[in-house]
Amino acid sequence: xxxxxxxxxxxxxxxxxxxxxxxxxxxxxxxxxxxxxxxxxxxxxxxxxxxxxxxxxxxxxxxxxxxxxxxxxxxxxxxxxxxxxxxxxxxxxxxxxxxxxxxxxxxxxxxxxxxxxxxxxxxxxxxxxxxxxxxxxxxxxxxxxxxxxxxxxxxxxxxxxxxxxxxxxxxxxxxxxxxxxxxxxxxxxxxxxxxxxxxxxxxxxxxxxxxxxxxxxxxxxxxxxxxxxxxxxxxxxxxxxxxxxxxxxxxxxxxxxxxxxxxxxxxxxxxxxxxxxxxxxxxxxxxxxxxxxxxxxxxxxxxxxxxxxxxxxxxxxxxxxxxxxxxxxxxxxxxxxxxxxxxxxxxxxxxxxxxxxxxxxxxxxxxxxxxxxxxxxxxxxxxxxxxxxxxxxxxxxxxxxxxxxxxxxxxxxxxxxxxxxxxxxxxxxxxxxxxxxxxxxxxxxxxxxxxxxx
Length: 454
What we know:
Layout: H1 14-47, H2 49-57, H3 59-85, H4 89-124, H5 132-144, H6 146-161, H7 166-189, H8 195-219, H9 227-230, H10 234-266, H11 270-286, H12 288-306, H13 310-343, H14 350-364, H15 367-382, H16 386-411, H17 413-416, H18 419-453
Helix pairs in contact: 1-2, 1-7, 1-11, 1-12, 2-5, 2-11, 3-4, 3-6, 3-10, 3-12, 4-5, 4-6, 4-10, 5-8, 6-7, 6-8, 7-8, 10-16, 11-14, 12-13, 12-15, 13-14, 13-15, 13-18, 15-16, 15-18, 16-18
């Protein structure tokens, strides 16, 4: 039986459930972005524009690698959600145990590979010579902390798959506060450079992941594992890898386009990199509701597919899209009037503020598309079609590459700011028809199973 710490998303009003599940996730994402913002503010105001550009120049490669890791963990949580929705708890525990073993192996392999080739990657990305040493100092520490990234995201993903979106948030908020304190200690008190916020990020995430492990052992009796659950089984390993790897690749394929775009922006000089960095940092903060809605729909769709209720998946997905659209209109108005003041938290250089504002508004007018990308993509993945969702990532990658090789050479920074809106449009054109295709496939599958049993 399910414990009191778990929550079913297969019964009740979808709007109420989606709001109740996504709001705690949103709080966690906001606090996560808050300590990312604090990193950037302290770096920009204390260490200068060169340090700000150095941290920003690693953003796309950071997303490429750590996004792949987080995607794997999110994919591993999908079979857990489906088995929980189907009330098949023995199989669910086997999936949890196998995901732990696979995560340990994958985190070690990925850490070694990116740790060895980190500087070469920055060189290939044409990172400006005046900031490449700072960029390497920052991102190398982040990459050596990849096992910690796996630890938190896997444990948080498992808890969310069982309907608990609050507890991972509490630990993330705690970690955010610790991160802020460590930023101040490392940079202002100890006089460290950009390696200070990198260390702060890794340490705080370690604390969050460790806290999740301790909590799960005490509060989730349904997850009491035996040694046999940790032993990789052919079926469970195959299912997990078929979910996790495509999920991770979807993040990485999207990020490949970002890396290519970042390379093009790097070629425009330090001011352009700093402008994009400031704009991206603010954007990452204001798009948290879209990320929360996406994460919610992965669990919502996963549990309801386990319960074989596809009409409920459709209803929940469009309910989430309505919420995303309302927020998109609201935040566009907010950014239009307050954007310049927010950007001054990062830098006092007027040209950087002006260019960063151009980036923010170009993105904000198309945030409804971003809402759809997150909601429909994660719903598809929650239904078990992780490979299918990769194609939307390919569409985004193609769009960003087109912008990098056409708009940026022709009109410079003004062209780069439209990369994400074009990418979101390309993805949405594919995702919505794809979502209904996946729904139809599952409905036919469940109908055939019912006929078989009759």
